[in-house]
Description:
By secondary structure, this protein is an alpha/beta fold. Helix content is about 40%, strand content about 15%. It has helices spanning about 15-25, 35-50, 60-65, 75-85, 125-130, 145-150, 165-175, 195-210; strands at about 5-10, 30-35, 55-60, 70-75, 95-100, 135-140, 155-160, 180-185. A six-stranded parallel sheet has the order 3-2-1-4-5-6, with helices on both faces. A two-stranded parallel ribbon has the order 7-8. The two termini are about 30 Å apart.
Amino acid sequence: xxxxxxxxxxxxxxxxxxxxxxxxxxxxxxxxxxxxxxxxxxxxxxxxxxxxxxxxxxxxxxxxxxxxxxxxxxxxxxxxxxxxxxxxxxxxxxxxxxxxxxxxxxxxxxxxxxxxxxxxxxxxxxxxxxxxxxxxxxxxxxxxxxxxxxxxxxxxxxxxxxxxxxxxxxxxxxxxxxxxxxxxxxxxxxxxxxxxxxxxxxxxxxxxxxxxxxxxxxxxxxxxx
Length: 225
């Protein structure tokens, strides 16, 4: 049976962009949202843009979390804790969660180029506290341009994947590889998400100063394909 990828908060720019890319790659995608009708409409729009049969469905966040094998958290940081509390009893044993959230000050009305202080150290480490035993976590996909994800061209960006669980890191890296132009880079332990998340604020600042929308990062000198 093919795995199901649930994108929680999947009607936003990043979530719908990832849904677009993974649906194009042949993955079975479940778009989750607080509003199931909105999720269904987003799934319909992606199907219509692709113009070919694809496995993509829309539903509420809890239904997506309960049905998926891999869950990708793409909600704003300000809403992540409340959502994770709601989902605590619905996860299937063995589910892998990929946290893409970034604690930007913009989520509480501040500047998009500033970070919020997180007591646990990072958004990913906060997420870990809300996950029940048996659910693995990786932090990844923070620095991909939502605008580029919405299209079908190469994104040309390295993606740092941080996790204390090797299987979660492997699955997250594999999904990165499904996006043309993206390359997964082993970012080490989950605690390194503190560094990776802050790069998003830096990239937003670069986009603003250079008046572009798709700034990414590349690491040189690595023996990666």
